[in-house]
Amino acid sequence: MSEVAQYAGSTLSRLSNVVGRLEKRGWVRRRPDPPTGAPPWATLTDEGQDKVAAAAPGHVDAVRRLVFDPLTKAQQRQLGTASQRILGAIQAPCPTDWAPDGATPAAGDRD
């Protein structure tokens, strides 16, 4: 959860509050980080996965209508190229100086 908070530009406390609301709905379950017992991991429950699956078609339609349809084919290819670079950056460790004040660094970034 610390890493998600960092990537979202949020704090662990704020993310924890959001996850708490999702837990009350039965969509997420928290469990301790197995190696350290540090900030917990949040995992989707079966009900949470069903909710994501139910929302996906509408989300895909909206993204297609608002993001892809207005672009020319060349612009769509450029977006694909840019997206691959962004994905590479997302998969890299989040820089500690990118996190907002009060955010907890990712587990691998802790001293």
Explain this structure to me?
This protein is mostly helical. The protein has helices at 2-7, 12-24, 46-68, 73-91; strands spanning 28-31, 41-44. It has a two-stranded antiparallel ribbon. The two termini are 18 Å apart. The model is unreliable at 103-111 (pLDDT under 50).
Q: Given the C-alpha coordinates, what overall shape results?
A: extended
Q: What average pLDDT do the residues reach?
A: 82
Assembly type of the chains comes to single chain
Number of helices: 4
Rg over C-alpha atoms, rounded to the nearest angstrom = 17 Å
Beta-strand portion reads: 5-15%
In short, what is this structure?
The chain is mainly α and 111 residues long.
Descriptive labels:
about 110 residues; mainly alpha; two-stranded antiparallel sheet; 4 helices; 2 strands; extended; disordered C terminus
Layout of SSEs?
Layout: H1 2-7, H2 12-24, E1 28-31, E2 41-44, H3 46-68, H4 73-91
Antiparallel strand pairs: 1-2
